[in-house]
Design goal:
single chain; mainly beta; Beta-galactosidase, Chain A, domain 5; 8-stranded antiparallel β-sheet; 2 helices; disordered C terminus; glucose-6-phosphate 1-epimerase; GH-type_carb-bd
């Protein structure tokens, strides 16, 4: 396996008119549409040239839907999800910053997922950018010293590739005027839709160490050939490869997760008992979802004033479970075939 490469759009192919007409079913280029959902939340719809789409809320900069060229939904949203700020939305791809879970002094998973972002009309260029079908740039620079006493600038790009791949790029800059550094942890937490959790297999983290959140973050070495699900799982794998595969055998489909700047990986499914204890999670929802995300959790990221950190994640849909038995995490870490 060759070393993973993730590229972003070189520019946003956006419409300046929010009321612009939707593109035809198949278009040689993508488009960006501005609209609201049934709950009145503003969102951006990215459309690719082969009918793939992605929907992004300004609330939380959260991707709430990602569909392939067949119109199949690839992300999961809870049957009891609440679409009423300031509640977080259970599903899609939440962004966790500046902390993951309750590992800090502020609210669970941080605060950016419950803030209203604005569209970044003049984002600085991405040095590694490459053309894609459509993208949107968002920015959050709200300062609340009572929540988090640091001045920061958070830029976030959501892009849809020509083959329907979903790319997220986050850039966080320390803009404190007092010359002080700050530290944070970070995670993308995709809720992936699956046909049956008992038929799901995750490859790419076998033989690696993980922090088991069901055992007070005890550090354990993975012994299984691949990750399967028969009970609750809540793990953070550390020093993970750039590519992880999520295989759905029943649907004969695979989601490839590629990442850069994010050394850790989250794997979570609450199973039956925990599902009943989560207020905004349906009792049977655990059967149709799995969270597999890219993160920087074990080691804090520290930025001096003026410094910027960048993390990227790409999700790609493959209409088969071809990865089975072919991912060697040690080779992936080295970026060799």
């Amino acid at each position: 396996m060759k070393k993973s490469e993730i590229t972003e759009c070189s520019s946003s192919s956006s419409s300046s008119n929010p009321a612009a007409a939707a593109p035809p079913p198949v278009s040689p280029i993508g488009s960006v549409e501005f609209t609201t959902d049934s709950n009145g939340l503003e969102k951006i719809v990215l459309r690719g040239p082969r009918r793939s789409t992605a929907e992004v809320f300004l609330y939380g900069a959260q991707v709430i839907s990602w569909k392939n060229k067949l119109g199949e939904e690839l992300l999961f949203v809870s049957t009891k999800a609440v679409f009423s700020p300031p509640k977080p939305i259970r599903g899609g791809i939440p962004i966790c910053f500046p902390q993951f879970l309750n590992n800090g002094m502020i609210e669970r998973h941080g605060f950016v997922r419950t803030r209203f972002w604005r569209i970044d009309l003049n984002p600085p260029p991405l040095p590694t950018a490459a053309p894609c079908s459509s993208s949107i740039d968002l920015i959050l620079d709200e300062q609340d010293r009572w929540t988090w006493p640091h001045k920061y600038e958070f830029r976030h790009r959501v892009a849809l590739g020509y083959e329907g791949e979903l790319r997220l790029t986050s850039r966080i800059r320390n803009i404190r005027p007092d010359g002080k550094s700050f530290s944070f942890t970070f995670a993308y937490l995709p809720y992936l839709f699956v046909s049956d959790i008992s038929e799901v297999r995750i490859e790419g983290v076998e033989t690696l160490n993980y922090l088991d959140h069901l055992r007070d973050k005890e550090r354990v070495t993975e012994q299984a050939d691949a990750i399967t699900f028969e009970s609750e799982v809540d793990k953070v794998y550390v020093l993970t490869p750039t590519k992880i595969a999520i295989l759905d055998h029943e649907r004969k489909k695979t989601i490839e997760l590629r990442k850069d700047g994010l050394l850790d990986a989250i794997v979570w499914n609450p199973w039956e008992k925990k599902s009943k204890a989560i207020e905004d999670f349906g009792n049977q929802d655990y059967k149709r979802m799995v969270c597999v995300g890219a993160a920087a959790i074990e080691n804090f990221i520290t930025l001096k004033p003026g410094e910027e950190w960048k993390g990227r994640m790409e999700l790609n849909f493959v209409p088969s479970s071809y990865c089975s038995g072919q991912l060697d995490p040690q080779k992936a870490l080295l970026g060799v075939a």
